[in-house]
């Protein structure tokens, strides 16, 4: 025969009293019913810690009150965000992806010829104007524009992007374009 725990008989008569107490705390019938259920679940889970002969009702009231205050603390920290706008504000991309991208950029920059790397760094990283970069490289502004453009194109290819013309049209290099680019690259401005 299965042994029945005394709580099977002791808990149900306490439901009405606990409900009234929970209703005073929560001021909502549905929430009060939930509190009573949570109290019974916690009492059942911790039935071995209850000392027979002590005040069961006081023990249950303490569990119910503590459960109510715990839920209040929890709900104070929660913010209603039905459409997800607030959660989107908390989004932050993983830092390791930026580190990997930075390492790729450093590697691609190291592969650029010095003649293209220096103007790209001066203008892109240090914020030099075209004139300032031209003065630093001892060349004309038009030459700096050309070197920066070629350097950026090389970086774009390193990252798998098609080179883009100044007017925004994508070029599709063929044999003629390769000869033209090769001839321009061999020129020393």
TrEMBL record:
Superkingdom classification of source: Bacteria
InterPro entries according to UniProt: RNA_pol_sigma-70-like (IPR039425), RNA_pol_sigma-70_dom (IPR014284), RNA_pol_sigma70_r2 (IPR007627), RNA_pol_sigma70_r4_t2 (IPR013249), RNA_pol_sigma_r2 (IPR013325), RNA_pol_sigma_r3/r4-like (IPR013324), WH-like_DNA-bd_sf (IPR036388)
Domain RNA polymerase sigma-70 region: 18-77
Gene Ontology molecular function: any one: DNA binding
Sequence ranges assigned to domain RNA polymerase sigma factor 70 region 4 type in this UniProt record: 103-155
Family matches, as Pfam families: Sigma70_r2 (PF04542), Sigma70_r4_2 (PF08281)
Record region (Disordered): 157-177
PANTHER family documented for this protein: RNA POLYMERASE ECF-TYPE SIGMA FACTO, RNA POLYMERASE SIGMA FACTOR RFAY-RELATED
Name of the protein this chain belongs to: Sigma-70 family RNA polymerase sigma factor
Source organism (scientific name): Rhodovulum strictum
């Amino acid at each position: 025969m299965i042994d029945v725990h005394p709580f099977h008989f002791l808990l149900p008569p306490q439901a009405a009293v606990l409900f009234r107490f929970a209703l005073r705390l929560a001021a909502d019938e549905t929430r009060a019913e939930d509190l009573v259920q949570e109290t019974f679940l916690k009492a059942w889970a911790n039935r071995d810690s209850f000392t027979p002969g002590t005040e069961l009702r006081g023990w249950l009231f303490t569990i119910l009150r503590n459960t109510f205050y715990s839920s209040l603390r929890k709900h104070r920290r929660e913010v209603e965000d039905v459409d997800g706008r607030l959660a989107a504000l908390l989004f932050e991309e993983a830092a390791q992806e930026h580190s990997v991208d930075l390492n790729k950029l450093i590697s691609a920059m190291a592969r650029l010829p010095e003649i293209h790397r220096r103007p790209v760094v001066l203008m892109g990283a240090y914020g030099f104007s075209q004139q300032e970069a031209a003065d630093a490289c001892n060349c004309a502004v038009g030459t700096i524009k050309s070197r920066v453009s070629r350097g950026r194109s090389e970086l774009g290819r390193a990252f798998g992007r098609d080179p883009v013309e100044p007017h925004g049209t994508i070029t599709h290099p063929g044999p003629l374009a390769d000869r033209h680019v090769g001839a321009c690259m061999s020129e020393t401005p």
